[in-house]
Write a structure and sequence with these properties.
With 459 residues, this protein is mainly alpha-helical. The protein contains 24 helices and no strands. It holds the Pfam family MFS_1.
């Protein structure tokens, strides 16, 4: 894609931003409403015969197990996204996520259909995992590939904004149900279902919006020239496996800490271990999601000013500084301490999430980019956030202390920083199919900055 072509899309930036943010918000609302409910109701309604402690572990495990299927979703979406286009995969993944979420809202509980209830719940969560694995890459590329080179950092933050917005919406909706519409036992009886059923309306809105945007100009040019890669995943792992590992480590550093909140562990800890009111905790999580939104937005601008790598390193430094104080604040600070802990987490998360889409897009060649960003993101989620709530719960049970949890979070943060240090910043690199030689070379410190032309042949 030429520079002229990229600059020619500037007039559509607002429409692309709106469509990307709204669609991603809806997708992640669906994903997070499950994680929020896992810590509040699923242990009682679907896993209660296992006993209170084991039921909670099983409930958190279903959150993590779905992540194991995110790479499969990424593989499928990456393959067809590189072959058929970014937009079509965005529509398919949105519909899949919405259908699974709505079905959870009408699912009978263990007391009604026995062991079939948790099995069906897990199957629907797996469908959510498949959708989440495929959705992010398409949204990221639609935003970044439409943007002029000098504004890719802020454009790449648009799909990232949908994640805190989705979490805010999920936390806010659940808080509304627990505190106003169906307090007490009514929430366990029927109120928890409403946030899932609302997904029907959201999916219709998201579908109409995503259908309205044009295809990524990079893919349009690839398709016009017939340059689609026949086996993008094979090419990715044959030529870029080191890059995949390093970039996945970056997201491990972010998602492990992130799923302390979005995965429900810290919410449940504040409620069960510190005795805080359920609705108060959910409102605090929603406020923190707002902070996460703004820190993510700021990080996108910073990525265009000081670079993707530097923004990440600042964010990881913030994360490393807060992983021990956050539990002290929750343990000793009451409700103000909970707010302070969640806000501190959210600042670091935004700084290590806002530039992610842009950096990933600039690392991989055009013909395998959808596969590259989707699979890397999914692997980072699996080895980072997937089982973070369950691991944290196990560490708490084994040691009776949060020190082990904070040490675990610090290790993940350091791994993310190592991954960031090993990658190169490539702001302004052309993203179109005419520049695959340049795109193939120099993504990490272990690769030469310049490649022979034959190395760019990724088919």
């Amino acid at each position: 894609m030429s520079t002229t072509l990229a600059a020619g899309t500037a007039s559509s930036q607002r429409r692309i931003a709106f469509a990307t943010i709204i669609g991603t918000t809806i997708e992640w609302y669906d994903f997070f409403i499950y994680a929020t409910s896992a810590s509040l109701v699923f242990a009682q309604l679907f896993f209660e015969p296992a006993g209170k402690s084991i039921a909670l572990l099983l409930s958190f495990a279903t959150v993590g197990i779905s992540f194991l299927f995110r790479p499969l979703g990424a593989f499928l979406a990456g393959h067809f996204g590189d072959a058929l286009g970014r937009r079509v995969m965005l529509v398919i993944t949105l519909i899949l996520m919405g259908a699974a979420t709505t079905l959870i809202g009408i699912l009978p509980t263990y007391s009604q259909i026995g062991i079939a209830a948790p099995i069906l719940l897990l199957l629907l969560r797996i469908l959510q995992g498949l959708s989440a694995g495929g959705e992010w890459g398409g949204a990221a590329l639609m935003a970044v590939e439409h943007a002029p080179a000098g504004r890719r950092g802020r454009a790449g933050s648009w799909p990232q904004l949908g994640v805190p917005l989705g979490f805010l919406l999920a936390s806010g909706m659940t808080a509304l149900m627990t505190g106003v519409i169906s307090p007490g036992d009514a929430f366990l009886q029927w109120g928890w279902r409403v946030p899932f059923l609302v997904s029907v309306v959201l999916i219709v809105v998201g579908f109409l919006i995503r259908r309205s945007v044009s295809e990524s100009p990079v893919f349009a040019e690839i398709a016009k020239r017939g340059k689609q890669t026949r086996a993008p995943i094979v090419a990715l792992f044959k030529n870029h496996w080191r890059l995949v590992i390093l970039a996945a480590l970056v997201f491990v550093g972010n998602s492990t800490l992130g799923y302390m909140t979005t995965g429900g562990f810290l919410n449940n800890y504040a409620i069960t271990e510190q005795g805080l009111d359920r609705t108060v905790v959910l409102v605090a999580a929603a406020v923190a999601a707002g902070v996460w939104f703004f820190s993510t937005l700021i990080a996108g601008y910073l990525a265009d000013i000081i670079g993707r790598k530097n923004t990440f390193l600042v964010g990881f430094a913030v994360q490393a500084a807060v992983v021990f104080p956050i539990f002290w604040l929750v343990d000793h600070g009451g409700v103000p301490g909970l707010y302070a802990a969640l806000i501190l987490i959210s600042i670091g998360l935004g700084l290590t999430y806002g530039p992610l889409a842009t950096w990933y897009a600039e690392l991989f060649p055009a013909s395998i980019r959808f596969s590259g960003v989707s699979i890397t993101y999914a692997l980072g989620a699996v080895f980072g956030g997937a089982f973070a709530p369950m691991i944290a719960q196990m560490l708490l049970g084994a040691t009776g202390s949060t020190v082990a949890i904070s040490s675990y979070l610090l290790l993940a943060t350091l791994l993310g920083a190592i991954g960031a240090l090993c990658l190169r910043d490539r702001p302004g690199i052309p993203l179109g199919p005419d520049h695959e030689v340049e795109q193939t070379a120099g993504g990490s410190v272990f690769a030469p900055r310049h490649a022979a032309p034959e190395l760019a042949a990724t088919r």
